[in-house]
Amino acid sequence: MGTLHILLVDDHPVVRAGLRAMLTGFEDFSVAAEAADGDAALRELTRLRALGERVDVVLMDLQMGAGMDGVAATAAIGKLDSAPPVLILTTYDTEADILAAVEAGASGYMLKDAPPEQIRQAVLSAAAGQTALAPKVAALLMSRISSPETALTPREVQLLELLATGLTNRAIARRLFISEATVKTHLVHIFGKLGVDNRTSAIALATQRRIIRAPGQ
Amino acid sequence: MGTLHILLVDDHPVVRAGLRAMLTGFEDFSVAAEAADGDAALRELTRLRALGERVDVVLMDLQMGAGMDGVAATAAIGKLDSAPPVLILTTYDTEADILAAVEAGASGYMLKDAPPEQIRQAVLSAAAGQTALAPKVAALLMSRISSPETALTPREVQLLELLATGLTNRAIARRLFISEATVKTHLVHIFGKLGVDNRTSAIALATQRRIIRAPGQ
DNA sequence: CCGCCGGTCAACCTTTTGATTGATCCGCCC
DNA sequence: GGGCGGATCAATCAAAAGGTTGACCGGCGG
Q1: pLDDT of residue A119
Q2: A48 vs A187: CA distance, rounded Å
Q3: What angle do CA A97, B89, B11 make, to 5 degrees?
Q4: Residue with the larger pLDDT of the pair B84 and B114
Q5: Stretch B175-188: mean pLDDT, rounded?
Q6: Which value does ipTM take for this structure?
Q7: Among B57, B31, B32, which residue's Cα sits nearest to residue B124?
Q8: A114 CA: distance to closest CA in chain B (Å)
Q9: What values do phi and psi take at B84, rounded to 5?
Q10: Mind listing the domains of chain A with CATH numbers?
């Protein structure tokens, strides 16, 4: 099927160089362009299209120091006509990260410590329109669907994330454009599912179970 | 002074590839070997020495998925006879990471998002026996020593640790055999020093600054 | 088409947390 | 030996968080 044209999006020059070296080492892989954040990624994508050049897969980091982050960029790319598949390649494997990426329309989720061959396979899968998940990620998703009664909804995970940053109920409400009453309702549900009865315990447990990242990480 | 021989230590193949590509792109830089964790780094170092090959600088990540971490490896390398300088190259710029690295004998601390030229200069400085700090890191250290009045007492740190496990004031009081009133007093002091006004923010900030371990870790 | 679930909101009440003030005790350093 | 800071405790008030009940809406699947 010819050469695969890849767009790299990562804020670390070192990581971009590494990915470029790794990918161009594979046959039929070619790095069409690179971007350091989500905004730049969109610009590159439209620029390449204007030139009539193909982009078969976008390889995207989630954490960006500045500018649009990976989730937002993934969602934005998905809105384009005949959008290329976006394969997430990141360091963290928490539920919150994974759920956000999947909701944004990512077609795969790989971890940076994966062996090169696994990454190569994931890129090929994504280009073929299939889903590619790191084994760890797949396991996590499986455990979620096998015990749905205790699984937190995406909204609840989102609440939990804001909770862990130290926001009050009122602040969370304002951030999400909902009422404080709704925040409390969500928290009661979260506490019930986690088996705790206050916010700090919820944060501790959620961090332990890798539902959310450690505060400030 | 001839070619600089560098030992790369990072658990991510992608990052190692990137660094190798970047470094070998510079004149007089050569990657002598690579290692995925601290144990492997020590093995590589002794192996190269047995072969009579030089290692002028060790480029070390702090976070390792498994095996000996960067701080331990740095300390271990420092114990060798005529040990090469260890330059830390990592993602995080938190107090505790930096202090731990410096205490372990690191001769520099750079961040992965630094431009290649800055990394090159840091490697050269380290090889010349000088200290190289990323601007961000230098700024953080300066701000810390200029404001010692915000330092937490050991007792306060202990409170903070229990706080992060999700205990209520009453539970903390029982755990420490003190009254709830005393717990409240401590918390007021902690909040004041950290510049926050509730326990979840205190946990988030303290975790961020690596004053305490992440909840449940 | 109806039921269920996720998300939203409100009222009400109890408990916990946070802020303030003021006090005692002890060890340490000048 | 007087001062200072850390740790301890108490009383009180205000604010935030937590628990309960009940309600409405929209989408999705049987």
Answers
A1: 92
A2: 46
A3: 60
A4: B84
A5: 90
A6: 0.70
A7: B57
A8: 8
A9: -70, 150
A10: 4-143 (3.40.50.2300), 154-208 (1.10.10.10)
